[in-house]
Amino acid sequence: MDRLQELEGKVREAVTLLQETRAQKVAMEARLQDLEHRVESLADTVRREQQEKEHLKTSLQRLEAEREEIRSRVDALLGEVARAEATLRERH
């Protein structure tokens, strides 16, 4: 009888351990799913920021090209002004 009670106790312990393990498994699966969602969200954020970076890079290149074009025009205008001033000096 004592042996039977001892075995029943061990079975109860095993069942309790099994229930605890199942509960932990469910909790871990939920945590894993939460982490997967967070990783997915971070990956989306990285993709959006990469796209924004590329957009800014393209805009910067466009602005630099515009600046160079304006600089060339200003240099040309300064050259014309210098020639006009030289012509005026020659006439006086």
List keywords for this structure.
92 residues, mainly alpha
| Structural class label | mainly alpha
Helix content, binned percent: over 70%
Number of strands: 0
How would you name the oligomeric state of the polypeptide chains in this document? single chain
Report the total helices: 1
Question: Biggest β-sheet, characterized?
Answer: none
Question: What percentage of the residues does DSSP assign to strands (E)?
Answer: under 5%
- What does the radius of gyration come to? 39 Å
Give the overall pLDDT as a whole number: 96
The coarse overall form would be: rod-shaped
Written overview of the protein:
The termini are far apart. The chain has 92 residues and is mainly α. The chain has 1 helix and no strands. The longest helix is centred in the middle third of the chain and has 90 residues, at 2-91. The mean pLDDT is 96. It has one helix at residues 2-91.
Compact description:
This protein has one helix at residues 2-91. The protein is mostly helical. The model has no long low-confidence stretch (mean pLDDT 96).
Topology:
Elements: H1 2-91
